[in-house]
Amino acid sequence: MAILEVKDIRKSFDNTEVLKGIDFTLEEGQVLTIIGSSGSGKTTLLRCLNSLEFADKGQIIVDGNVIFDGENTKRLSESELRNNRLHFGLVFQSFNLFPQYSVLENITLAPKLLNKGTKEEIEKEALELLESVGLSEKKDNYPCELSGGQQQRVAIARALAMKPRILCFDEPTSALDPELTGEVLKVIRSLADKRMTMIIVTHEMTFAHDVSDKLIFMDNGVIAEEGGPDILENPSSDRLKAFLTSF
Asked: Using CA atoms, how far apart are residues 105 and 98, in angstroms rounded to an integer?
């Protein structure tokens, strides 16, 4: 059974239809990469999955349980929303770390607020996550004292601290210069090697080819082409061919 099923997701802002019926499935341990031009709906789709936006229509199903149904107009309670969001972790392109907290505090804040263990257990796991992203020595530093690549690695550790079923990345290297991009992509590759279920929005085509089990090309709010990473070498649609020539 698929860990994630997305069925006919549609979303409009005022009179602009941004998502026009998105359907896909994802198996546990797979990496799905979403590519497409700016404005194609990629970020809006991630935000709908993470309940940061609400689709106008469609269903989102995790582990066989419907966590969103556009036909159900009943407003979700705060606890229901919180539980829905716990299925997903989201790493933003602009890091979104809390500047007033240290690296360790950024990672442990949410687990402590949600009583995910004792203070000692949560901090032990946070230190292990920092070690896994190569930042053990930065635990007492503040975000302003870190490079962009280091801040993004902290953001990844923070997302992992909540033990999400599916980890989502919204263009995680777009705010980084090329020298720092590699260190973030290395961490994501290591998660893929560990069979972490992930959805990655990226413009890094070589990385997308190497790390993905499935790949979706979005264009103007629809899935214009999908398949394995080989579609980057042999695109069938003219629109994907045109998109790839820009790299």
From this structure: 9
Which residues in 143-178 are b (16+ Cβ under 10 Å) and which e? Answer: beebebbbbbbbbbbbbbbbebebbbbbbbbebbee
On whether the CB atoms of residues 91 and 167 are closer than 8 A, the answer is yes
Cα angle for residues 228, 220, 56 (degrees, 5° grid) = 100
Q: What is the pTM of this model?
A: 0.94
44, burial (CB in 10 Å: exposed 0-12, middle 13-18, buried 19+): buried
Q: Write the CA distances from 68 to 4, 64, 75, 81, 214, integer angstroms.
A: 12, 12, 11, 10, 23
Query: pLDDT (tens digit, 9 = 90+) per residue, 166-187?
Result: 999 999 999 898 889 999 999 9
What is the rounded CA–CA span in Å between residue 90 and residue 113? 18
Beta bridge partner(s), residue 74: none
Residues of the chain predicted below pLDDT 70: 73-74
Residues 18 and 40: their CA atoms lie apart, in Å, by 7
* Alpha carbon distance 159, 156 (integer Å): 5
Can you give 178-236 as a three-state secondary structure string? Answer: HHHHHHHHHHHHHHHHCCCCEEEECCCHHHHHHHCCEEEEEECCEEEEEECHHHHCCCC
